[in-house]
Design a protein that fits this description.
The structure is a single chain. This protein is mainly α. It has one domain (16-89). The chain has helices spanning 6-9, 20-38, 53-59, 65-89; strands spanning 41-42, 48-49. Strands 1-2 form a two-stranded antiparallel ribbon. Strand 1 (41-42) and strand 2 (48-49) form a beta hairpin. The chain starts with 5 loop residues before the first helix and ends with a helix.
Length: 90
């Protein structure tokens, strides 16, 4: 699936200080939003139920919001290093 909700939600995440409690709250928020986006699951007996955490993680296959934020921090660090090198050359 090509769905990526992160850029709109965490534009400035590269500069965040990410503590464990905030990471947990972000993951809870992410699962809540994904449950709303992907809806309920029909059962064999005709009832509907909300998706559990394992199903949500299966939808997010590779990367959750915390992985995305860590990746953005590494990208930002690379940018800062390149800018510092350019300034040193001038």
């Amino acid at each position: 699936m090509g769905f990526n909700p992160y850029p709109a939600n965490v534009e400035t995440s590269a500069t965040w200080v990410l503590k464990e409690i905030m990471a947990n709250q972000l993951m809870i928020f992410e699962r809540k939003i994904m449950r709303k986006l992907f809806g309920a699951t029909g059962t064999d007996d005709g009832y509907w139920r909300i998706k559990d955490d394992q199903e949500i993680n299966g939808i997010l296959i590779r990367q959750n919001i915390i992985g995305f934020i860590k990746n953005e921090k590494l990208n930002w660090l690379g940018h800062v290093e390149r800018v510092a090198e350019d300034c040193a050359e001038d």
